[in-house]
Write a structure and sequence with these properties.
The complex is a heterodimer of chains A (98) and B (486).
Chain A (H helix, E strand, L loop, with lengths): L4 H10 L6 H18 L34 H5 L5 E2 L2 E2 L10
Antiparallel strand pairs in A: 1-2
Helix pairs in contact in A: 1-2
Chain B lengths: L7 H9 L5 H19 L2 E4 L1 H17 L10 E5 L26 H8 L3 E6 L33 H8 L5 E6 L5 H7 L2 E4 L19 E6 L2 H11 L29 E5 L9 H16 L3 E5 L7 H16 L18 H12 L2 H14 L5 H24 L2 E5 L15 H6 L5 H6 L3 E8 L5 E8 L4 H13 L11
Helix pairs in contact in B: 2-3, 5-6, 7-15, 9-11, 9-12
Classes of the chains: A mainly alpha (98), B alpha/beta (486).
């Protein structure tokens, strides 16, 4: 299994991760090697096997919809890298019309 | 003997009988940290001020004559991926360099209620991704038994701190062996509980279907004490199981008669260190002398466990780590021209190489067109591995194996080759895939003086059986009495 540099770029964009030229080379080599190893799973016929997503026999753990105490706005905003009054501040998202 | 060298249960007796105070004990541990920390670097943050204040409160409680919890006044270290209200929690990552949680993890809250003293946050592989603690953004932790070797990982700081008497006990987390493997490398006891036994609320998520919090301690009794304190269901973690918590300490005894031990031949492989093999075989013989019966069991899909794990764990990690976007908490790269660039540069600057590699692998495995070939395939093989264990546990009560194929390796020995590093987790990974409990404990030393780990696995929620098997073996041997020469 070979992961090309273009595929690395595509995956990095999906992961919202900027990568340097050096990282692209390294990831292409390392991930190809790991994926080749993982290819080992194809030795197994799993066509009649149900997937396990979770080991406990649990489904839909629900609770009553009652109002509980939650964090204060001050606490929630305390770790924000950038904020203005009671809001998180981010770079402009919506383009202005010409 | 210095106070820092004792166990929880020994110190509990001393505190209860007024032979010492929590203040005295806490100062001893802080002095020990000062003496060894420049050589082992087990901590990311030492919370001396908090610890002394908590010790003072514990001493007030002890003087009041009210009932005393076994953890009251005992200095405990916490892995730096457990949220501690008001105390920096970094996950050994630059992206969380200044993160101060506004709440406590459930396990932290439970320890606080018992009157435990928090001595500091321990070093780890960034986001718990690694087997050597070499992936920390804050530098290496050294193995107290040989400073040129790794302490294991990812809970390497917790294991090293316990081994070096820089705390009385510690908590770690285990996604693929991250409690048991460092426990083995540092010669301490480490337990990964059944998935759902301990609440994960406030544990910074790595792979949500595999992660569990557990203790690292100087002996099995201490492990049982901590397990009793942190276990139980929690409304803040819907995957925590509503299964009664047993009285783990009360059930410990030295008799193993009637216990059926399974030895999986797939865990005794070519290329394994002969000293490890010898020590584990001797341990099994000792357990037989205590009344246990052994038989061979088959775990035929063992060779697929690592490949399965590195799809499941990385896929779940890529999703969990999407939250580090530079908006609500964590660092942010500046300046950037738009939102997309902010995300991409923030994550580039904030994550280290192993975390990036795993995000990439997980994103690839979940990406359009590859989901069935990788993620679904791995989930199917997970079923096969689980079936192996279900079958084996119809015949035996516990399964005994080495914890790792070798003793602690040298710093830098495996950092160049990620796949070689992954392969060192071969004996611990299946336990997480299947969700069962397993303990690692010392079962001997190599000729060069490095600890060797024995792993005992049990059925889901059979922590009491696992702990008792470990206790009986421990009491029949002297390994726990050996200390590193620091």
């Amino acid at each position: 299994m070979k992961l090309s540099k273009e595929e690395v770029e595509h995956v990095a964009r999906l992961a919202r991760l900027a990568v340097s030229e050096e990282e692209k080379e390294a990831f292409s080599r390392q991930l190809s090697e790991i994926l080749t190893y993982i290819g080992k799973l194809n030795e197994l016929d799993t066509s009649k096997v149900q997937p396990t997503s979770h080991v406990l026999d649990l489904s839909n753990v629900l609770r009553d919809d009652v109002i509980r105490e939650s964090l204060s706005t001050i606490d929630v905003l305390a770790n924000a890298p950038d904020r203005v009054s009671d809001f998180f501040r981010v770079p402009k998202i919506i383009e202005e019309r010409e | 003997m210095n106070l820092a060298q004792f166990t929880i249960h020994e110190l509990h007796e001393q505190l209860k009988n007024r032979k010492t105070t929590s203040g005295e004990l806490t100062r001893s541990v802080l002095q020990r940290i000062e003496a060894v920390e420049s050589r082992i670097h087990a901590f990311t943050t030492v919370t001396a001020e908090l610890a002394l204040a908590q010790a003072e409160a514990a001493d007030r409680w002890l003087r009041s004559g009210r009932p005393v919890h076994p953890l009251t006044g005992i200095p405990i270290a916490l892995k730096d991926n457990l949220c501690t209200k008001g105390v920096r929690t970094t996950c050994a990552s630059r992206i969380l360099e200044n993160f101060v949680p506004p709440y406590d993890a459930t396990v932290v809250g439970r320890l606080k209620e018992s009157g435990a003293v928090f001595i500091g946050k321990t070093n780890m592989d960034e986001f718990a991704m690694g087997s050597s603690t070499e992936n920390s953004a804050w530098g290496l932790t050294a193995n107290p038994w040989d400073l040129n070797r790794i302490p294991g990982g990812s809970s390497g700081g917790s294991a090293a701190a316990v081994a070096a008497d820089a705390c009385i006990a510690a908590l770690g987390s285990d996604t693929g062996g991250s409690i048991r493997q460092p426990a083995a490398m540092c010669g301490v006891v480490g337990l990964k509980p059944t998935y759902g036994r301990v609440s994960r609320y406030g544990l910074v998520a790595f792979a949500s279907s595999l992660d569990q919090i557990g203790p690292l301690t100087k002996d099995v009794t201490d492990c049982a004490i901590l397990m009793k304190s942190i276990s139980g269901s929690d409304s803040f973690d819907s995957t925590s199981a509503d299964v009664p918590v047993e009285n783990y300490t009360g059930l410990l005894n030295r008799d193993l008669s009637g216990l059926q031990i399974g030895i999986p031949k797939e865990y005794f492989i070519d290329g394994m260190d002969p000293e490890v093999l010898h020590a584990v075989k001797e341990a099994v013989r000792t357990m037989e002398k205590l009344g246990a019966k052994t038989r061979e069991v088959l775990l035929p899909h063992t060779e697929y466990a690592i490949a399965t794990y590195y799809i499941l764990a990385t896929a779940e990690a890529s999703s969990n780590l999407a939250r580090y976007d530079g908006v609500k908490y964590g660092s942010r790269a500046k300046p950037t021209k738009d939102l997309l660039e902010m995300y991409m540069k923030t994550r580039q600057a904030g994550f280290g190489p192993e975390v990036k590699r795993r995000i990439m692998l997980g994103t690839y495995a979940l990406s359009s067109g590859y989901y069935d070939a990788y993620y679904r395939k791995a989930q199917c093989v997970r079923t096969l591995i689980k079936n192996d264990f279900d079958e084996a546990f119809k015949q035996v009560d516990v399964i005994v194996t080495p914890t790792a194929p070798s003793a602690a390796f040298k710093i830098g020995e495996k950092t160049k080759d990620p796949l070689q590093m992954y392969l060192s987790d071969i004996f611990t990974i299946s336990v997480n895939i299947v969700g069962i409990p397993a303990v690692s404990m010392p079962c001997g030393f190599t000729q060069t003086g490095l600890p060797i780990g024995l792993q005992i696995m049990g059925r889901p929620f059979a922590e009491a059986t696992v702990l008792n098997a470990a206790y009986a073996y421990e009491q029949a041997t002297e390994w726990r009495k050996k200390k590193p020469n620091l």
